[in-house]
Amino acid sequence: MQSEELQPEEFGQAAQAVIAALQGQGPAEAAAAMADAGLFGICADEAQGGLGLPLAFAMPVVRVAGQMQLSYPLPEQIPASKALQGTEAGGQLLRGEKSLCVVMAAQAAGDWSGVARNGLQADYVLVQTDAGFALYDKAALRCQAEEMLDPEVPQLWVSTTGATPLLTLDAEQSQAFCADIKLLWAEYVNGLCAGALERTADYLQARVQFGRPLSAKQAVRHHLARMRLLLEASSAQAWRAQRADGCDAPREADSALAAALSQGAWVLEKAIHLHGGMGFTWELGLHRSLREHKKLDACLGAGALMRAVGADFIDRCEVTQ
């Protein structure tokens, strides 16, 4: 498909209609609907049944998924369908017959390989190793649900001890997949924040106190302005990370994801605060957005990514001095 004929924003608009129709459907029905709409195959080659489009066309899709609080692991399945294309598992993911979760090595401890954001309903697990990524059948792994951050859609601890991978990605494939999923995760978090900001602005406009809407108060407007500023800066960083730098070298995706997680935490918590809540306030639907954010951050080491980006920056500065 010729990308010159299309605009990424059009894919976001199409995804919004598809995801809105998924309300009340189970994971299998939701996967089938998204596969029929071509959401999983945006970046996969046309010869494999995909659309063969750049990652930029998937960014608005995952942003909408975050904005509409979709719990299905769409940010994981889009790059996995591309990375595994040409294999049986890749075809199943592309057609929505199977689902997948991703385990990063940041939380590896003892026998546990790490924890997946949303892995309870997954059929496959793509696990990061020292050599790259390895694909496993989830049924062959030792798994344990972790409900502390989200009892409704829990995380999944995974151990690959004694299990044989179905296939492995080489170094180049692993690097490309890792960069893609980090940028999609970043824009997914930005979508969570965009949805929270929109709901908060609507609430403050409708909520009247002492004869005036809360949005008329200067302090409230300052909070909304800062939320918007952080969101736009984070999204701009994610989009910029897709493009090569001045030396035509690929930019690091880590800083974009670290910024989205760091700034997103403040935006989501402030949105709940402006609604009159605190933390995981069950009465507010925004608690689901905060839970998704916290689960993703936990899977990446609970702040470890930001610390790694900072350490890398310091090391580079020392080298140039």
Automatic annotation (TrEMBL):
<dbReference type="InterPro" id="IPR009100">
    <property type="entry name" value="AcylCoA_DH/oxidase_NM_dom_sf"/>
</dbReference>
<feature type="domain" description="Acyl-CoA dehydrogenase/oxidase C-terminal">
    <location>
        <begin position="191"/>
        <end position="311"/>
    </location>
</feature>
<dbReference type="GO" id="GO:0003995">
    <property type="term" value="F:acyl-CoA dehydrogenase activity"/>
</dbReference>
<keyword id="KW-0274">FAD</keyword>
<comment type="similarity">
    <text>Belongs to the acyl-CoA dehydrogenase family.</text>
</comment>
<dbReference type="InterPro" id="IPR009075">
    <property type="entry name" value="AcylCo_DH/oxidase_C"/>
</dbReference>
<dbReference type="Pfam" id="PF00441">
    <property type="entry name" value="Acyl-CoA_dh_1"/>
</dbReference>
<keyword id="KW-0560">Oxidoreductase</keyword>
<protein>
    <submittedName>
        <fullName>Acyl-CoA/acyl-ACP dehydrogenase</fullName>
    </submittedName>
</protein>
<keyword id="KW-0285">Flavoprotein</keyword>
<dbReference type="InterPro" id="IPR036250">
    <property type="entry name" value="AcylCo_DH-like_C"/>
</dbReference>
